[in-house]
């Protein structure tokens, strides 16, 4: 009989890198980012112009923040389709507090964030306590949030004309004050700030640990004594909170709360997370990957626009890319399972 | 005699339609390894899930150190030092070993929501060192072997200072050296005063590891004995009981009949290993074994639901390439799933539609419309001939009784001209009256020249119906027995009890179901 050590070690050395798949895909996504950058800058001299780069950063910011939140939900094995319309509802709430009620800007921001967090928590309760499938639950709240945004705004955009400093929050440039030639709007700083917070929450806190555990094996997590329903609600609340932040940011950027804007944003955000290596089966994903994924989407859109491809075709291309990214994830898992 | 650390008395537990436990009792001392055995469905796992707080008991008392305890949740049981290692390991694959060990009890630092990975890693290393298992606490659990994953579960139990450790079939998926390693760890824990419950189907390993043994049957506790006081034959007798015995079937002489299905060395991963057998026209071939022995996997492989890694399948003497259920149906193979509600029936559709489901392609009229006159006539014919009791053909399958539902599935395959029928647990969840109708129907079908491969976990059913019996254990065919063999012989082969296995020689390609000696415990006649 062979000594046990050699036997088990041989079996263990068979590589089954389930934990590293998202890292692989993150690298792939980063490679795609560089390839696209090279292709587009060869195709058009305008691509690497400072103004265009700032445009890409701006375009990435709001979608990126949404994608950060939904990354938590997807890692936890769920999905959140309501983030786009929750974003516009949050923007409207911020507008109501600041413009209609003439309250201070910080209160407006708090109202926007709270709206998002509450909407997310409601999603969580429906999914964790009433046991609805996440897809259906958040499809329902998508419609609810869209309707509420239109009702509360009276179907009209709310402008922040009396409070120019609100717009300044997003479109002013702290960097330009230090370095006058680099006029990069603050909105971009919000994206990276939010990404750092999200990365910390996902990798260093108890919330992040249970996010992975839920998506990887919910039953084992429950049997370990973790109150899974509560943590699931928390995960959806996080997604809502980021949607709320995105709402505040988009309102500040556009200097107005547009009640009918958010529908469709959820797909770009989910696409960003998936392209960045977050698996729709749950259990794996990284914040860095999601940020890269968000850039992949906005660079693609930007590059296609520079090449005068119509917006309709951009939608087609984005859809195809998402399908490819998910398919890649499935293929990789299948090969691992048979390894 | 030492007092019991843990005592369970009069435990009742029912699920809808099933009484899983009836006044079951169990006791465990500190520092003993206590084996818990019984057939599938005897209630072993249910009893232990009650103890671990996974299931709530309907009645009964549980005392720990003489004090009654409630055990309302896994957490409550853990807090009392009761830990269970489930049969299907409950680890989180994407997290590391250390993260799994402390899942739900993560060390934190200021502020309270921030994890202290270093403290967790140190604590995990300390626990793993006690087991001397050579596992890196940083490794993702998905990269470990099953044996090492089990060690992680044990480490998890140790880290909560478990006094009671329940292991539900821990050796089922392990190799011999891995089992030796597991037993070494178990003995070490016993020396430290931990009480270990060892649920196992491998009876031959029990004398080596267990101090005492409790046998369960039909949800009741039959006996608790010192391991030294009982033989394996004695255990098997208590597991099987002297329950109702059916007359042995009249076994037709099928030697002249054509072989309609033959498997040669079929292998699929660990589930099916080198399986070879033949099925003749007009034969009922019983497939006995414990749940998880690989019987359903064999049926699925024949039906094309799963790919095989190697080996060949011959249908009516010709090598068949079955790559999908569609291929199987065209070759005249029909499969009655063990879970008819999930895989066998479209519950929300009419009986007529269900019967025609596998043959709809033949009932298509112009422009892809379904020729309802034909489906109607076909359904009428089978409802009459199989005596399916239903108010109308439009009745929904959901509203039929279990026995009639099963007949609808049979009708579906008969309508598709299947003459090789794979019956997987055909009478599960069906009442006694309907069972005998299904048996009658099966006998009628083979008389008409159909062939049936019947998987069943109910030994009386296997013995009553089969012309020939194959026993599977851990993916292999461990014995071929004649129809009307004994429950004891089947159990012995299903649990790979070596003493009996040598008596009933395995034959790969038998010519006829000859009666061989079934060893010392043959009560068939």
Structural account:
The complex is a heterodimer of chains A (339) and B (525). Chain A is mostly helical. Chain A has a single domain (21-334), classed as ABC transporter involved in vitamin B12 uptake, BtuC (Orthogonal Bundle). Chain A contains 15 helices and two strands. Chain A has helices at residues 4-12, 21-43, 50-75, 83-100, 105-128, 134-153, 164-171, 174-178, 186-204, 206-216, 218-223, 228-254, 265-275, 287-306, 311-338, and strands at 158-159, 256-257. A two-stranded antiparallel sheet of chain A has the order 1-2. The longest helix of chain A has 28 residues, at 311-338. Chain A is globular and about 55 Å long. Helices cover 31% and strands 24% of the residues of chain B. In chain B, strands 6-9-10-3-11-12 form a six-stranded mixed sheet, with helices on both faces. The radius of gyration of chain B is 26 Å and the shape is elongated. The two termini of chain B are 43 Å apart.
Short précis:
The complex is a heterodimer of chains A (339) and B (525). Chain A is an all-alpha fold.
Question: How would you characterize the largest beta sheet of chain A?
Answer: 2 strands, antiparallel
Distance between the termini of chain A: 26 Å
Sheet with the most strands: spatial strand order of chain A: 1-2
How much of the residues of chain A is beta strand, in percent? Answer: under 5%
Q: How many helices of chain B in DSSP terms?
A: 18
Largest interface: A-B, 35 and 36 residues
Q: Which parts of chain B are unreliable, with pLDDT below 50 for 5 consecutive residues or more? A: 498-525
In CATH, the homologous superfamily of the largest domain in chain B goes by the name P-loop containing nucleotide triphosphate hydrolases
Tags for this entry?
heterodimer, A: ABC transporter involved in vitamin B12 uptake, BtuC, two-stranded antiparallel ribbon, 2 strands, globular, B: 525 residues, alpha/beta, 3 domains, 6-stranded mixed beta sheet, elongated, disordered C terminus
């Amino acid at each position: 009989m062979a000594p046990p050590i050699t036997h088990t070690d041989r079996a263990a050395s068979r590589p089954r890198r389930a934990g590293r798949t998202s890292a692989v895909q993150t690298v792939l996504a980063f490679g795609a980012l560089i390839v696209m950058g090279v292709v587009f800058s060869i195709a058009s001299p305008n691509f690497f112009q400072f103004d265009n780069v700032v445009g890409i950063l701006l375009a990435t910011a709001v979608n990126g923040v949404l994608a950060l939140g939904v990354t938590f939900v997807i890692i936890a094995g769920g999905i959140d389709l309501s983030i786009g319309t929750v974003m516009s509802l949050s923007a409207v709430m911020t507008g109501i507090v600041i413009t209609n009620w003439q309250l201070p800007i910080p209160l407006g921001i708090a109202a926007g964030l709270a709206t998002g967090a509450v909407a997310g928590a409601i999603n969580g309760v429906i999914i964790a306590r009433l046991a609805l499938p996440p897809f259906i639950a958040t499809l329902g709240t998508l419609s609810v949030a869209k309707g509420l945004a239109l009702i509360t705004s009276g179907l009209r955009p709310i402008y922040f004309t009396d409070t120019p400093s609100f717009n300044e929050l997003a479109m002013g440039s702290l960097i330009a004050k230090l370095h006058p030639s680099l006029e990069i709007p603050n909105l971009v700083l919000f994206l990276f700030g939010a990404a750092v917070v999200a990365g910390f929450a996902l990798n260093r806190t108890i919330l992040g640990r249970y996010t992975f555990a839920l998506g990887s094996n919910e039953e084992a997590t429950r049997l370990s004594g973790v109150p899974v329903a509560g943590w699931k609600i928390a995960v959806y609340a996080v997604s809502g909170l980021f949607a709320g932040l995105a709402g505040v940011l988009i309102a500040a950027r556009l200097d107005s709360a547009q009640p009918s804007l958010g529908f469709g944003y959820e797909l770009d955000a989910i696409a960003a997370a998936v392209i960045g290596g977050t698996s729709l089966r749950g259990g794996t994903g990284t914040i860095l990957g999601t940020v890269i994924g968000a850039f992949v989407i906005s660079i693609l859109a930007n590059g296609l626009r520079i090449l005068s491809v119509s917006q309709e075709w951009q939608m087609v291309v984005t859809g195809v890319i998402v399908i490819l990214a998910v398919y890649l994830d499935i293929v990789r898992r299948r090969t691992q399972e048979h390894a | 005699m030492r007092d019991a650390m843990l005592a369970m008395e009069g435990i009742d537990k029912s699920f809808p339609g099933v009484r899983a436990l009836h006044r079951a009792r169990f006791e465990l001392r500190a520092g003993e390894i206590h084996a818990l055995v019984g057939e599938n469905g005897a209630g072993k796992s249910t009893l232990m899930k009650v103890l671990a707080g996974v299931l709530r008991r309907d009645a009964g008392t549980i005392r720990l150190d003489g004090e009654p305890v409630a055990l309302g949740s896994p957490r409550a049981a853990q807090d009392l030092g009761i830990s269970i290692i489930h049969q299907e390991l409950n680890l989180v694959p994407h997290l590391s070993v250390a993260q799994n060990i402390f899942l739900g009890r993560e060390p934190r630092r200021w502020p309270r929501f921030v994890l202290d990975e270093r403290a967790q890693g140190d604590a995990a290393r300390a626990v793993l060192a006690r087991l001397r298992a050579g596992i890196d606490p940083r490794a993702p659990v998905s990269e470990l072997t099953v044996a090492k994953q089990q060690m992680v579960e044990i480490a998890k139990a140790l880290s909560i200072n478990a006094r009671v450790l329940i292991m539900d079939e821990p050796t089922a998926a392990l190799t011999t050296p891995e089992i030796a390693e597991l037993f070494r760890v178990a003995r070490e824990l016993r020396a430290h005063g931990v009480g270990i419950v060892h649920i196992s189907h491998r009876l031959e390993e029990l004398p080596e590891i267990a101090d005492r043994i409790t046998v369960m049957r039909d949800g009741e506790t039959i006996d608790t004995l010192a391991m030294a006081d009982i033989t394996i034959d004695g255990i098997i007798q208590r597991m099987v009981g002297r329950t109702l015995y059916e007359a042995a079937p009249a076994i037709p002489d099928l030697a002249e009949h054509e072989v309609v299905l033959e498997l040669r060395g079929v292998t699929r991963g660990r589930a099916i290993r080198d399986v070879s057998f033949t099925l003749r026209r007009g034969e009922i071939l019983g497939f006995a074994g414990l749940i998880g022995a690989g019987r359903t996997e064999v049926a699925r492989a024949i039906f094309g639901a799963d790919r095989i890694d190697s080996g060949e399948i011959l249908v009516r003497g010709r090598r068949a390439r079955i790559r999908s259920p569609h291929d199987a149906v065209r070759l005249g193979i029909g499969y009655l799933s063990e879970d008819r509600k999930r895989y066998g029936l479209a519950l929300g559709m009419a009986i007529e539609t269900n019967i025609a489901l596998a043959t709809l392609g033949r009932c298509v009229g112009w422009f892809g419309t379904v020729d309802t006159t034909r489906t109607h006539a076909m359904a009428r014919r089978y409802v009459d001939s199989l005596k399916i009791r239903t108010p109308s053909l439009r009745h929904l399958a959901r509203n039929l009784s279990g026995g009639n539902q099963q007949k609808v599935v049979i009708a579906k395959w008969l309508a598709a001209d299947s003459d090789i029928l794979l019956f997987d647990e055909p009478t599960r969840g069906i009442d006694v009256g309907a069972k005998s109708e299904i048996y009658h129907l099966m006998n009628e079908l083979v008389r008409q020249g159909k062939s049936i491969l019947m998987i069943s976990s109910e030994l009386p059913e296997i013995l009553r119906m089969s012309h020939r019996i194959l026993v599977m254990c851990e993916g292999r065919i461990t014995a071929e027995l004649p129809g009307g063999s004994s429950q004891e012989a089947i159990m012995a082969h299903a649990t790979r009890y070596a003493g009996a296995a040598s008596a009933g020689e395995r034959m790969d390609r038998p010519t006829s179901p000859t009666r061989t000696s079934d060893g010392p415990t043959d009560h068939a006649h």
